[in-house]
Amino acid sequence: KKELSKKDRSSLELIQRNSDRLLALVNQLLDISKVEAGKSQLRISKNEIIPFTEALIKSFKFLAQQKQLKFKIISTDTSEDTWFDKDIVEKIVVNLLSNAVKYTPENGEIVCEAFVQNNQFYFEIKNTGVQLTSVEIEKIFDRFYQIDEHKQGTGIGLSLVKEIVSLHKGMITAESTKKWTTFKVVLPIAKSEYKDVIEEELSKNKKEELNILPKETVVKNETTIDEISNEPILLIVEDNADVRAYVDAIFNSNYTIIQAENGQKGIEQAIKYIPDIIISDIMMPVKDGIELCNTLKNDERTSHIPIVLLTAKVGDENEIKGVKTGADDYITKPFNDELLKLKIDRLIAVRKKLQERYSQEIILTPTDVHVNSADELFLKRLQSISENDITETSFGVEEFSKIVGMSRMQLHRKIKAMFGMTTSEFIRLQRLKLAAKLLKQSDVNVSQVGYAVGFNSASYFSTCFKKEFGVSPTQYASTPHK
Q1: How far apart are CA 248 and CA 246, in angstroms?
Q2: Around Cβ 416, how many Cβ atoms within 10 Å?
Q3: Each residue of 138-174: pLDDT tens digit?
Q4: In whole angstroms, what is the distance from residue 326 CA to residue 315 CA?
C-alpha cells in the first residue's frame, strides 16, 4: 500500500520479524540435520578472516548498547593467507555473540578476541554473569538444553555451533568462573587442510553482503507518568519485546501503558505507579510471574490490582498454580486479542462494582464481597482511621499517607482503585458518613455535628452533606431511616 498507517506498518513489521526468527530456527534445525546426515559440505575460499570476523562482531554493538553492556573487541590482523567457510564462521560468531548478549546482565561486560597464529584461527568470547556449574558446562552443547528456562531460546544454537566447528575440523570449549563464562573456538585456516574440498572456481566468488541481524525491535519507551492520568493505567510485564509491543498496541488507545521486561522490574513499577491492572508473563528472568503475583497480592499497596497471567505452558496443573497465587485470570499463548480485551474489561467492571459497594457502606467491612487478606487488612485500617483520626480538623492527605505508610501518590491510586474517588474526597465522604450516623444516634445539635466530624465550617458541612445525601443535615436528622 502506498499509504500504510503507522499502526499497520508496526503490525506487519512485527509479523516479519517473527517470521524471520521462525525461518532462522528452521534453518538451524536443517543445518544440524544436514551435518548429521553427512550432506553438509564445506565451501572453502580464500578471504580475510579477521576483517570478516570484526564486521560480524561490530554489528552487535547496538544490541550491547541497548542493555548498557561494556563491549570490547580485541583483534590482530594477519599477513597470512586464510582459507575458511564464510557461512560457517558467520554462524559460529553470530550464535556465540547472540548467546553472550542474551545472558549478560545489564551493565555487564563482553570481550571478543580474534587472531591468527600458526595457521590457526582463534576466536574467544567471554561475558560476565552467573557462574555455570560443572554439570551445566558439560551439557551446554547438548541439543535443546537450556541453562535458564526463563530465557527465550530453544537450546539449538550452541548445539549447531559444536556440529559446524567439528565440520570445519576445529574445536570448541567452554569454561566458567565467578566472573567470566568463556567460549573458545580454534579453526585451521591453511589451504593444505582443505585441498580436497576447495572449490574449483575461487575467482568467481563474490563478496557477500553482511546482513546477518534481523531488524531491531522497536519498543515503545516506558511511559513517564508525571501526573496521574485520567486513563486507567495498564502495566505490561513481559521479557519478549515484541509481545510487549503487541499487547501495548491492543490497549494503548484506552490505557496509559507502563512496561517492564522482568518480574522484579514489574514489581517495582507496580509499587511505584499502582496501576489499575497488570498483564504479566509467567516465565521471565530475575523473578517470574508467579513471584510477581505473590509479592503484589500480599502488599497492601498493590493487593487490590487485578492480575492476568500469560503463559505458553498449557495444562490444568499450570493453570491451577497460576490461580493459587491470587491471579485474577489466566490465558495461554498464543492468545486471541479479543479474548484478552474481554478478560481485561471484565476485571475492570468487577473493580468498578467493588468501588460502588465500598463507597456506599457507612462501615468499611468487606462483608459479602470477595477480597484478599491484604485488602481486608487495609479496609480494617481505614475503618480505624475513620473512627479515630479522621474527625480531627487538621487531618488531611499528608497525615493519612503517614499513618498508612504510603506515598501520597500510592495512597491516591489505592483509594481511587478501591473507592473510585480521590483521597480528599474519601476523607470528606467518611466524615459525612460519620455525621449521618451521629445525626441518627444522638441529640447533638446539628450545627455542632460538622465540627465534631472534622469540618471547620458549618456552612461548608451543610453544603457537602446536602450534595451527598440530597437533604440538609436537619432534614436528615428528622426523617426516619431504616
Answers
A1: 5
A2: 19
A3: 888 876 555 555 444 445 678 888 988 998 999 999 9
A4: 18
